[in-house]
Amino acid sequence: MIKKIMAVALLALTIAGCGKQNIEITTPNSKPQAASGRLTIASLQEPNLLNPLLAENEAAYDVDRLIYSGLLFCDDKGSWQADLALDVPSSQNGGISQDGRVLTYHLRPGVAWHDGVAFTADDVKFTWQMIMSKKLKISRDGYEQISGIDTPNPTTVIVRFKDPYPGYLSLFPFLMPKHLWEKEADWLKSPLNRAPIGTGPFKFVNWQLAEQIELEANSSYYRGKPRLNKINYKFVTDNDILLNQLKVGEVDIAVNLPFASADQGRAVSGSKSVLVPTGILEELAINLDLPQFQDANVRMAMDKSIDRPGIVSQVLKGVAHVAAGDQPMGAWALRTDLKAGTRDVSAAKELLAQSGWTQGPNGVWEKNGKKLAFSIQVPSGNKLREQVAFYLASQLRETGMQVEVQTVDEQLFFNERLPMRRFELALFALVTNEEPDNYDLWNSSQIPTSKNGYGGRNYAGWRNQEVDQLTLLGRQTFDYQTRKQYYGRIQECMIDDVPIVPLYFRAALDVAKESVQNYRPLPWKGGRFWNAWEIEMK
Question: How much is the pTM?
């Protein structure tokens, strides 16, 4: 799981892919679907380009997902499904070699690009070459592990890795047409960036700058014609105008409403609010090297003092999902049977008493002459997070802990306080993606020290031998069911050991007309329209 520290966590990101292993073949619809109506989507953003390799904002990924396809996609049950591939490669179906270094995709025959040219294995290889080209300054995570790609015939792709790469299924969520892009001398300035050709459920029609992008149903889509005839993706620069268009019915879906407009959006008559999950985890890290926090009962008492649903409802206006661990909603590795702890002040006090703490005259817990007193550091510049910090402090004080909130300069917080672990408690966010590898967060070798150049991200200082082993095994195993067990056990250890208090995953708020059906957004890049062919108006 590639994770970054997030200074300002108001941005809702979506990231492509996900997956529990599912090797069933996804086949086209057996019955043709009747297309009906035009869907109008409104966003406060306009795409920078319509090229998924160069996309820089959510609007770009939204539209790209409507136009382009990939080898695999993830459904809303957390299962990998085949898209332009015929099946999901696995060791069981021969798609993965014994040593894990060779991956074979068999492509769906008869698929054509929107201009009528056949989609082939050469397009997959060329997409990799584009990603690896020095012409583009983009992330190559995972792709740099590929040593080469063979295309023995138009429907077979053989991917060869330098070393085994367990996150292989998250690669190639979007594919590019070789026959068009190989002719372009400058990929950054190509007109294809504003007039794209894909293989997805909708075709590009036109882009009226600062107004809208118009798409039409791809009648040759391999699943059958989508249920919508047309999609208009509008750009509305003013939030008040957006809300008004929603109220008067000019817009069918308003995406990513600003936090300040959440209540107004929910109040629109004839509409439904749709909470779009993200991979942004807000956590309260505990410095486990400090004597008062080495007692697991103290950490558990802190956890039981916190009302996560209260934070979500009272501070965040419901625009978040309560977190029990480090895997977000929609992730294949999420343990859905594990629930976040509920607030129980009496139980918290009992835990402290069991560890020999006693409450002094002012109600603050003491032990060996020292009070249970600490600070919560929070980076400056995010008023919402600061509100959460004061909410947490208030709840911890009710249990009898002496807590203060310290607002720290953002650069100082992320460049010095976190990596050098100069904090007692720290409130910040991590950005997670669909690959659940959390070695960098929880393996004890990743505790920042002078020896590793303060480069690790295990800021809490969690030392757990079982977790160390599990994070290593998760990087060495290719069977997703087995990997799910490993990461599920890590989530369980996190609940038992409380190295951090996972609070909530941020969300985005969309508002859709009641007539919009089958709109089921997921938390990854382009996840709003992963099932665009099924969305319809009734």
Answer: 0.87
Could you give the 3-state DSSP secondary structure of residue 222? coil
- Give the residue ranges of DSSP H helices in 69-109: none
Tell me which H or E stretch contains 351: helix 345-354
- The residue whose two tokens read 């697991």 is 296
Distances (CA, A) of 9 to 62, 366, 385, 407, 508: 20, 35, 8, 16, 11
Query: Contact 399/300 with Cβ under 8 angstroms?
Result: no
The DSSP secondary-structure symbol of 33 reads P
Q: In terms of C-beta distances under 8 Å and separation of at least 24 residues, what long-range contacts does 437-440 make, across chains too?
A: 437/1, 437/166, 437/167, 437/471, 437/474, 437/475, 438/1, 438/3, 438/326, 438/471, 438/474, 438/487, 438/490, 439/471, 439/472, 439/474, 439/475, 440/1, 440/3
Range with the lowest mean pLDDT among 30-39, 49-58, 356-365? 30-39
Tokens at 25, concatenated: 């073949």
382 torsion bin: left (phi>0), alpha (psi -120 to 50), beta (else): beta
Interhelix angle for 465-473 vs 480-497, to 10°? Answer: 160
Count Cα atoms within 13 angstroms, Cβ side, for 240. 0
Report d(CA 177, CA 188) in Å as an integer: 15
Read off the tokens for 150. Answer: 């063979």
Least confident of 6-10, 108-112, 396-400, 529-533: 6-10
46 vs 192: CA distance, rounded Å: 17
The 10s digit of each residue's pLDDT in 78-93 is 788 999 999 999 888 9
β-partners of residue 105 are 157
Distances (CA, A) of 146 to 162, 168, 171, 192, 401: 6, 10, 11, 27, 52
The first and second tokens of residue 417, run together, are 């306080």
At 130, which helix (H) or strand (E)? helix 121-132
Tell me the one-letter amino acid at 491: Q
Query: How far, CA to CA in Å, does 527 sit from each of 83, 376, 521?
Result: 15, 34, 5
The per-residue pLDDT for range 355-366, each reduced to its tens digit, is 999 999 999 999
